[in-house]
Specification:
Strand content: 25-35%
Largest sheet: 5 strands, antiparallel
Helix content: 10-25%
Strand order of the largest sheet: 3-2-1-5-4
Order of helices and strands: EEEHEE
Low-confidence stretches: none
Length: about 80
C-alpha cells in the first residue's frame, strides 16, 4: 500500500519527511530519498512531481472489507 512519506517545500528542490520529529528540511530530493531509506529500509519510491510528493510502497495490499449478512439477508 502506498504511503505518503515526504512533500516538497517551496521554493526550489527542498523536501521534508512528514513523520520526522526534527522537521528537518533536506536540500535535495536525493538527500531526502536517502533519509527515507535509512529510516524505513524501503527503496521503492513513487514520485508525483506535480503534487510534490514522495510515496513509498510497503508491499502490503489492504484487506477488502467483508460484508456480513444475517440469515434473512440483512446486513450485520
Amino acid at each position: 500500500m502506498k504511503e505518503l512519506k515526504a512533500t516538497r517545500v517551496i521554493p526550489g528542490d527542498r523536501w521534508q519527511i512528514l513523520d520526522d520529529p526534527d522537521n528537518r528540511i533536506y536540500t535535495s530530493l536525493t538527500e531526502c530519498l536517502n533519509a527515507i531509506f535509512q529510516q524505513t529500509g524501503m527503496a521503492q519510491f513513487y514520485m508525483d512531481a506535480k503534487a510534490g510528493e514522495v510515496h513509498i510502497e510497503d508491499g502490503v495490499q489492504p484487506k477488502p472489507e467483508i460484508k456480513k449478512f444475517s440469515l434473512y439477508g440483512e446486513e450485520i
